[in-house]
Amino acid sequence: MATTTQQPEQLIRDLPLLARLPGDDMRALASRGRMRTFPAGTTIFGEGERGDSLHVVVEGRVRICVTSGSGDEATVAMVGPGDCFGELSLLDGRPRSASAVASTATKTFVVTRDGFVEWVQERPGAALAIMETLSLRLRRTDEALADLAFLDLAHRLAKQLISLASMHTSDGPPTLEPPIRINVTQSELASMLGVSRESVNKQLNLFAREKLLTLSRGAVTLQDPDALRRFA
After folding, report:
1. SS3 (DSSP) at 206
2. CA-closest candidate to residue 189, choices 224, 146, 154
């Protein structure tokens, strides 16, 4: 898990965007960035705004969401320490395709589009890392579409809880030591899965009766994450 004591190049070293770059290339990019802090609930950027920066999450958790024409909101991703967001607009300069909201107090390492483009122009080999990142994003989108088509709510909810649990531990899968408290509301879970809060509440209570988890205000605590992962 990233911490603010790390040097900038350490913060970005494990990003899929940069995973195969030599240390010199990473240091060159890190030198172009800066740290920013956002209180919980802050909109880091809004859907449709000019895309001018890449964010690496250092501390906290960020919700990526989209809004329909009728005003309904759906959460498409939750990102935590070590993850990045905003890279699509960074590459193509088009308006933001989603909003980013700090779910908790959050710190990010930010690289502007101008700095990023200058870095790529100076170091053409970085293009390969960018292609790998885009491929990863497409694979994740394909997986999400497959889950939506073939998995029922119970399995999708279990899978989402395990994914969120991994963001709350330093190691993540394959070992998740219980209990694991996930600071997420049932409304947020419903938004992530594209279903009603009532449906999520019903399924969470079924999991609770099976002693897989316990519920509290604004949080879900996994008591048997291994069983949930096998179910997912």
Report:
1. helix
2. 154
